[in-house]
Amino acid sequence: MANVTPDLVKALFVGFGKNFKDGLAKAPSQYTEIATVVKSTTASNTYAWLGQMPGLTEWIGDRTLTAIQSHGYSIVNKKWANGVEIQRTDIEDDNVGVYSPLIEELGRAAGEKADELVFGALTAGFKTACYDGQYFFDTDHPVGANVDGTNQKSVSNITDDSTGVTEANAWYLLDCSRSLKPIIYQERKAPTPAQITDANDEKVFMKDVFTYGVDSRSNVGYGFWQMAHAVKGKLTAENLWKAIEAMRAVRGDGDKRLAIRPTHIVVPPSLAQAATKLLERELRAEDGVAVDNEFKRMNLKLIVGDYL
Fold it and tell me: Which InterPro entries does this one have?
């Protein structure tokens, strides 16, 4: 039986720290492909400038300053935490090896949290508001005929082929070529290990357990809805073309051309095979005839979202 001394506990937790870092490093990461990371220094960030699509006009005389509609869109950071309890009796009985994979998995889970939030935001976009007060994916985003947002009409960023495809099985086209991507990942505090190793701590005294944990603070929100298009329909060449053309046709306030060009297609795992065939085959079938696959030349990047 091992004598549970402070030095022994400290040495064990150094090893647990390595397990955590190993798990964190192994976490697959896709979120930066479709999300802009914003470092936060307060409890929340307000993105009042959302709605502005800057452009240049000819300078004749005084500089042209255009009144832009202001928005009060805020993202409030949330706290995330989890941990593993290490029984004192397991330390006494030299049975701590069982905790190493648990703590490594804790690190992996911490590393995947951003992916979970970012890709979850796509699915939640049908029921969560963005900067203009409409759901991020909606049929009636207000776009003004005037630069200041007045004299509005409704614009959709959803294609629905009425085949009964649910939001959970939707797929998405995104323009991720701009400095602000469709999703905003706001990070206040990166995943940080925390531990309770003092034998005199109340929790150790009352429950006879030590604790290795992790906490972080972050949240997600939405950038420009114009950069994203959701398709509640089958993944077919026809629907893909409809979505591409719909994105390319979107204009900003004042009928400003936005030059939206989809760069990524994001699909749930259930559509991975269909998407791969559609994008990567040299030929595809059209009206029973094999034709050149134009999507292969478009260089749309396929992302299979594990958290869709």
Answer: Phage_Mu_GpT (IPR018774)
Please check the confidence at residue 200 and state whether its pLDDT lies above 70: yes
Q: Which of 56-60, 168-172, 249-253 has the lowest mean pLDDT?
A: 56-60
Residue 303 — pLDDT band, cuts 50, 70, 90?
very high
> Any idea which residue has 């649910």 for tokens?
166
On the CB side of 51, how many CA atoms lie within 13 Å of its CA? 25
Query: How far is it, in rounded angstroms, from Cα 160 to Cα 139?
Result: 10
Q: What are phi and psi of 188, to 5 degrees?
A: -95, -40
Looking at residue 90, its pLDDT comes to: 93
Q: Which amino acid is at 104?
A: E
Contact 34, 176 (CB under 8 A): yes
The amino acid that residue 62 corresponds to is D
Burial of 211 (0-12, 13-18, 19+ CB in 10 A): middle
Phi then psi for residue 144, to 5 deg, are: -85, 140
Q: Mark out the alpha helices in 81-235 (DSSP H runs).
A: 88-92, 99-124, 202-207
Q: How many residues are there in the chain?
A: 308
Work out the end-to-end distance of the chain between its first and last CA atoms, rounded to an integer number of angstroms.
48
Distance of CA 58 to the CA centre of its chain: 37
Who contacts 56 (Cβ-Cβ below 8 Å, separation ≥6)? none
Q: What is the pLDDT of residues 103-113, one digit of tens each?
A: 999 999 999 99
**What is the distance between the alpha carbons of residues 254 and 148, in angstroms, rounded to a whole number?**
8
Write the CB contacts of 47 (distance below 8 Å, at least 6 apart in sequence): 71, 73, 74, 75, 131, 184, 221
- Residue 62's pLDDT is 52
Distance CA 244, CA 241 (A): 5
Instruction: Give residue 207's pLDDT.
Output: 92
Cα–Cα nearest to 96, from 23, 22, 16, 18: 16
Strands 35-39 and 141-144: what pairing?
unpaired
